[in-house]
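> call design_seq(struct)
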């Protein structure tokens, strides 16, 4: 007998592992959860379209829901262009290049992104000895726990594709959940979203209960 469960595929944020979804809660009788990890780009020139097609090949169930966080939200939208989906849900992300803040557009135009210290992420263990104070130590510990992809080629590729994303209007059948206090993608640039009060760019961790309820309700479950 064919399962009547709704299949949900999760795409984590830039360089993050699927562990960032660990606090979300869904009914086991209604949903089947699948977690996608980042692939390494074939080269620094691989297009986001080709990469998304490879990611979409990891989706084996028909008519799934794809949920992505931050850059994972961009990737979820690109993946949905290659497969038929029940719904695409993005969290702490953007629906088009027009929702990127001006400072990121300026970084793209000046090519300042090339100065991004990707090696700092690949060497978090060494970096941690320079963290002073409880806040800094907690932040480094958080990064070490959830950032699993430390390949410099991937990081350079991903940052480039966030800044050069060419989608100029939202795709159909998309739900956008966004934090009011998101400092990466400020909500003042975001249109047509469900706003989460006190939600930051990492609210997938500390606002997981609220986000879980929104997702469940959006799927009429």
């Amino acid at each position: 007998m064919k399962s009547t469960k709704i299949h949900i595929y999760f795409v984590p944020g830039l360089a993050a592992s699927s562990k960032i979804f660990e606090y979300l809660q869904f009914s086991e009788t209604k949903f089947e959860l699948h977690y996608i990890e980042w692939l390494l780009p074939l080269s620094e020139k691989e297009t986001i379209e080709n990469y998304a097609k490879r990611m979409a090949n990891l989706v084996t169930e028909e008519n799934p829901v794809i949920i992505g966080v931050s850059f994972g939200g961009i990737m979820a939208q690109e993946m949905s262009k290659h497969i038929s989906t029940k719904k695409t849900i993005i969290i702490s992300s953007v629906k088009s290049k027009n929702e990127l803040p001006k400072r990121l557009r300026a970084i793209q135009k000046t090519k300042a992104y090339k100065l991004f210290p990707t090696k700092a992420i690949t060497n978090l263990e060494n970096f941690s000895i320079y963290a002073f104070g409880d806040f800094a130590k907690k932040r480094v510990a958080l990064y070490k726990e959830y950032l699993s992809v430390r390949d410099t080629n991937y990081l350079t590729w991903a940052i480039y594709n966030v800044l050069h994303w060419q989608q100029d209007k939202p795709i159909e059948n998309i739900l956008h959940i966004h934090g009011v206090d998101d400092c990466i993608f400020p909500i003042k640039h975001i249109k047509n979203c469900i706003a989460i009060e006190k939600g930051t760019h990492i609210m997938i961790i500390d606002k997981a209960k609220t986000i879980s309820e929104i997702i469940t309700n959006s799927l009429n479950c």
